[in-house]
Structure formats: C-alpha cells, structure tokens
Amino acid sequence: MTQDVWSAVDRYVIDHLVPEDAVLAEVVATSDAAGLPSIHVSPPLGKLLHLLARIHGARRILEIGTLAGYSTIWLSRALPTDGHLVTLELDAMHAEVARSNLARAGLADHVDVRIGAAIDVLPRLRNEGQGPFDLVFVDADKASYPAYFEWALRLSRPGTVLVFDNVVRNGAVIDEGNTDPNVQGVRLLHELVEASPHVDATSIQTVGSKGYDGFLIAIVCEPAH
Ligand code: SAH
Ligand code: DHB
Ligand code: MG
Fold it and tell me: What is the value of pTM for the model shown?
C-alpha cells in the first residue's frame, strides 16, 4: 500500500462524501496563484474539523496557522450565526489572501485574521479577554507546538477540544535522535500532553493525498488555570 493507493482512496472519499465546493476550489486556486505553499489540510481532514466543531457545538474557535484560509473556512462553516473564529498568521501576505477568501466565502463577519507571530499574539488575546475557546486547531510552526499547547490550555475551559496537525511526520515522531526542530516539537508535545493532568488525548495516524502524517486530539478535562 503506497501513495498511489492513498491518493486514490482520498479521491474516492472526496467523490462520495466531500462534495466539490466552488469557494474552497477558489481558495486553493488563489493560494496557488499567489505562490503560497500547498500545505492546507486535505479535503477529508477539513471535513473532519468541520464535523468535530459541529459535533461539539463550538461557538468560539481559535486557529493557529491560517495560510490561505482553507481550514479556516471548513471550521467557520460549522459555527452558529453568533459564532466567532480567531485565526493567527505570521505572514501578512498569507493573511491578505485568507481575508479575501473569507470575504468571498461570506465569512468575514465571523472571522478575525490576526497577523503576527502566534507566540506574541496569544498573550494579547488573553489580555483582551478573548476565550475561553471551545475548539483550538493548531497548524503553524511545529517547533512551537509545546508553547502553543500551554497557550491553548490558558485559553480553554474544561471540555475544550484541542487538535494539533502534522504530529506523525512520516513516522519521525518516534525517532528520539532526530534533530529536526519540527520533530522535536511534536515529540515534546506528546510528552507534555502525557504529563499534563489537564487533558486526555490520543494521536491518530493518517494516510492520504498528503502522504503519511497524523493529528493529536485532546479534551481539556479539569480547570486548567
Ligand atoms: N491551517 C492551514 C494551513 C496552515 S500552513 C490550512 O489547513 O488551510 C501553516 C501556516 O502557519 C503558514 O501560513 C505559516 O505562515 C504560518 N506560521 C508559521 N509560523 C507561524 C508563527 N510563528 N505564528 C503564526 N503563524 C505561523
Ligand atoms: C507543512 C505544514 C503543514 O501544516 C502541513 O499540513 C504540511 C506541511 C510544511 O510546513 O511543510
Ligand atoms: Mg498542517
């Protein structure tokens, strides 16, 4: 079983369960045209994020790592009419593409795209009194995942769902000698989650059009402040 099969099965799942969507197709097209990297979540994973938000009844969502707004749109479409999503993006050009995509999707009133290094913006969010969030999706620089975990807890309540993308990294997550800061980041994330009394979690390996990776999902299970 290799990449060809994984991609073909992703295609099958998309054809049956993730209907072609003009707005999302436009997001990918504008992202490619602007030269942004093609590293958005796959359509089935975008749909999973959307379903998780709906299953959970999320009203306030925090995302770290916007890119062109692809996952942002999947998550925002799960919000009720008075719901809100805050998404953090380091690169002003990415944020600009995302804002125009969110406007085209009719979601501009529900989404706040904040430009800056997430590690600087997260304390500002807390000082503004934002949160607690119902769901936090983390998909930015993997080396900072340990820090984002601590901030996600500070901006959470018991019951908040945390999702971290790309934590398996082609299996490198189990390589303790790996010097890649991204790998070290996802390894330390697992150790912090293991040691934390504030979350209950698992990680799920995934294959698909984007190769072999996975996500960590956690629920905040007691007051984390
Ligand atoms: N969630 C998006 C993909 C995000 S790609 C989707 O699935 O559609 C990762 C994004 O994180 C990139 O746009 C990158 O510019 C941004 N990023 C990288 N480092 C960051 C940081 N320190 N703070 C905020 N955003 C960061
Ligand atoms: C990269 C980042 C991602 O969030 C992802 O899902 C795939 C790749 C990257 O930085 O290469
Ligand atoms: Mg990702």
Answer: 0.97
